[in-house]
Amino acid sequence: GFIYCFLVTKKALGVRQYHVASVLCQQAKVAMSHFEPNEYIHYDLLEKNINIVRKRLNRPLTLSEKIVYGHLDDPASQEIERGKTYLRLRPDRVAMQDATAQMAMLQFISSGLPKVAVPSTIHCDHLIEAQLGGEKDLRRAKDINQEVYNFLATAGAKYGVGFWRPGSGIIHQIILENYAYPGVLLIGTDSHTPNGGGLGGICIGVGGADAVDVMAGIPWELKCPKVIGVKLTGSLSGWTSPKDVILKVAGILTVKGGTGAIVEYHGPGVDSISCTGEEGGQATWPVSCVGPDGSPVGSRSSMATICNMGAEIGATTSVFPYNHRMKKYLSKTGRADIANLADEFKDHLVPDPGCHYDQLIEINLSELKPHINGPFTPDLAHPVAEVGRVAEKEGWPVDIRVGLIGSCTNSSYEDMGRSAAVAKQALAHGLKCKSQFTITPGSEQIRATIERDGYAQVLRDVGGIVLANACGPCIGQWDRKDIKKGEKNTIVTSYNRNFTGRNDANPETHAFVTSPEIVTALAIAGTLKFNPETDYLTGKDGKKFKLEAPDADELPKAEFDPGQDTYQHPPTDSSGQHVDVSPTSQRLQLLEPFDKWDGKDLEDLQILIKVKGKCTTDHISAAGPWLKFRGHLDNISNNLLIGAINIENGKANSVRNAVTQEFGPVPDTARYYKKHGIRWVVIGDENYGEGSSREHAALEPRHLGGRAIITKSFARIHETNLKKQGLLPLTFADPADYNKIHPVDKLTIQGLKDFTPGKPLKCIIKHPNGTQETILLNHTFNETQIEWFRAGSALNRMKELQK
């Protein structure tokens, strides 16, 4: 009665919409999720902060600015300059996947705090290896990882963290279904957290130490992002999918082009991605759901796909403006109350007219062709029509051994439906996949729904194996049997990354990323030379036929089937809850504090390795079989930099021990130096640490005696992770100085006693022949981060402040 009465009054008085929303928010409180009925969405505070900042800056704001600045700890006095100042933010919630949650929870335990300060969740998705199929693989994972799952479940219960059991699905799909909403600021300990931008939130991937700050109630620091605008015009049609938008953007911006920026999609073309394409799906405000010729455009999910893979261009995150498609998805996933509240606040969930972008890219969707990117890097973009010819010219294998669909990037209901639509056409002509074919549902809800609606059976009939609701081969959790290590071969996936050895630990696997429907078509044809837009297949009856561009419902006609209940609520009283870590465990290890800075310059540092070329977090701390040690710092440190190429000999995991002059594995050499009190550095190339958010790539060098990482440039998350653990991420003031340093040199870093923001440090290079050179090293430390360095780590500094 209150709401109806108030809306009538509002209409009569002509009160501005957002004032209504403020009252609604206070009177009819809306919970952030079904799982936390007492944690509310605070659009009123978002609005208040946006208005303060807009008045101060006196200019139109982009959408990402509204959401980020709307979460400022102190909007009235926070210094705001894109790309320069550090913002102190108050995120709404934290999400952690099981591989990174182990170290995050170990650090939180070490902090001594009794409970998390913001809603937080743990998601079990990384430790399930693809081997035989969904149910068998899940049973095996529960058995093998019982100790770790028990630790995470009990730690979650004790400290107030929700726990999603193994089999529940991939963290990002669970967030989309339950926790993301327009205007949320969410941080997650996984680099593909930006997936939530598909529901209009600012969702940012971070290391575990950042998550600990937020869970501890400390303002979270982020360098004020620049904003790259991507204006979409025209409309998608035919075989072109949302995946092609980000594959194209990756080709334009490259793997580091988005570093330090939020990518914000806007323009009339957004509606062709977001319209429902379903009967009765009438928009409540105008959307363009027709093509250039006036014909209806089929539904297109998903904006989440585009935001997810924005991690591959180094972007802080990506975001889409709130629209009807998001409203419908929220309603279909049981959150109509959030959608209604977002409608009231819509002005704050879209960019201001006339806002300024630091860089603007325009893509005409009507002209965009299906793309496929790879091998070995996600920014090597090819139109599908050309990749076969390029592959033959470059000597890449054109026969496709395995096609893999799913993963956090492309496992929506519509993704599965479009793939099934392609498979149905092949089956109608008596064909099955020539390549092996795997399907990874994104969540238990997606799995149960595609089973009910027949998609899963169609994909099985065409030759597919449905894997567990988990990351699986996308992160190297794949017990691959069809090839030997070192055998040259090609796979095509609907995943997001394709670094050397990432999927199967074979450096000769040429992995290409594309849309699920293109993967399905290529797996049926068995070759990169097949272009489904123009080429014909031969049916069992000998007749030639062409695959039609697939279409599928964006959302199920019936409600989603939630499947099995896989969520564990934290108890209201956790006083009797114990968290056990055995001192003899090979999987878990309580953390010892890192040593404090001794107040002196770093003298005569040995060079552990001078890295040549690309060095991702996969190169620094490999996943796959190493995932089982993510909770045991000493054990996982045995994979330190084993994938990095040593410039001295062109080999991986082979470096010279400066004392013995013998070549040996990188971790062994680092342990030798640590044992003998020799401090060391790593020299890196461009965009060092791109890829995953795994903070183990920072913890390991610190644990084994590293003091600094000196590179031409860093990826954002890794640079922060290094600072958090008390290491010095430094960059050459002149990138050409990379060539002045040789693996046999020793380095002294000067200026730490007067370590101040913006002031370069001096580095003296001591050559074996007795000559010396001096170069300058830049850094991005602010005052808070310098305190982390002096204390030995951010966690040490937190404890100092508590005392």
Architecture overview:
This protein has 803 residues and is an alpha/beta fold. Among the domains are: 371-546, 2-Layer Sandwich (Aconitase, domain 3); 602-802, Alpha-Beta Barrel (Aconitase, domain 4), CATH 3.20.19. It contains 26 helices and 32 strands. The strands form 9 sheets. The protein has a 7-stranded mixed barrel with strand order 22-27-28-29-32-31-30. Strands 6-5-2-3-4-21 form a 6-stranded mixed β-sheet, sandwiched between helices. A hairpin with a 4-residue loop joins strand 23 (645-646) and strand 24. Helix 25 (783-791) crosses helix 26. The longest helix has 16 residues, at 413-428. The protein is globular and about 80 Å long. Mean pLDDT is 91; it is low at 1-27 and 274-300.
Descriptive keywords:
about 800 residues, Aconitase, domain 3, alpha/beta, 26 helices, 6-stranded mixed β-sheet, globular, Acnase/IPM_dHydase_lsu_aba_1/3, 7-stranded mixed beta barrel, single chain, 32 strands, disordered N terminus, Aconitase, domain 4
In short:
By secondary structure, the protein is α/β, with parallel strands linked by helices. 31% of the residues lie in helices and 17% in strands. Among the domains are: 371-546, Aconitase, domain 3, CATH 3.30.499.10; 602-802, Aconitase, domain 4 (Alpha-Beta Barrel), CATH 3.20.19.10.
